[in-house]
Amino acid sequence: MFKLAVFLSGRGSNFEAIVDYVSKKKLPIEIALVLSDKEDAIGLLKAREYGFLTSVVKRNPKKQSLEEFNTKLKIECEKQNPDLVVLAGFMRVLTKEFISNFKNKVINIHPSLLPAFPGLDVQRRAIEAGEKFSGCTVHYVVEEVDAGTIIGQASVPILPDDDEHTLAARILKEEHKLYPRVVEGIACGKISPSDKCVSIDPMFKLNDY
Ligand code: GRF
To answer: Tell me: the pLDDT tens digits for 88-132?
Structure first.
């Protein structure tokens, strides 16, 4: 079994999309851990309902440095020995130490067509910039936020009367298709990282969903 550790801070709809896809396609993938920095994250509650192993590592910036927080994350995560760490709306910064500990094994999904619009509030910023298209990006995680090697993207139009919510909803639908497919590709050895690029089996169509 290929083991996933999913990190989330919120509603966990991408996490659910991965769970649904894995179960529908009967993939040899196990959700070994769902970890959150928020004990009341909806995604964490859903994970418990599914019966997955969960863990809460709270972030307290007053009492704890970012490094200490990341050390705790690392310890919790390592216990399950995951093959892949899947960030699904995890709103905390991972340190270089954490990332190098899971080298080429941490991926994230971001609701813009990176490298355009890294960071926060990206749907609103894309509309304000007058863009005609936006979308989502799955990428390997490096120390710089939203800057790692891109694995796959899906685009959507930005319509004239869109606001950040309507656009976010349109992008999210694509996220729910793209992210599980990327996880499948990595788990089945069809997608593999190399230093500054990603190799994808030409027979494995990322947007074939
Ligand atoms: C998604 O828009 C994702 O791109 C971003 O955070 C959001 C998480 O949504 N990184 P959900 O918790 O998976 O519903």
So the answer is: 999 999 999 999 999 999 999 999 999 999 999 999 999 999 999
Measuring CA to CA, which residue among 89, 107, 94 is closest to residue 182? 107
* Strands lying side by side in the sheet with 84-87: 54-56, 29-36, 2-8, 84-87, 106-110, 133-140, 150-157
To test the pocket of ligand 1, the residue of 172, 173, 176, 179 to mutate (highest count of ligand atoms within 8 Å of its CB) is 172
What's the CA-to-centroid distance between 134 and ligand 1, angstroms? 15
CB contact at 8 A, 137 and 87 = no
> Which DSSP category does 124 fall into?
H
> Which residues are catalytic, by number?
110
Our measurement of the distance from residue 157's CA atom to the centroid of its chain's CA atoms, rounded to an integer in Å, reads 22
Residue 105, token pair as written in the block: 């094994």
Predicted model pTM: 0.96
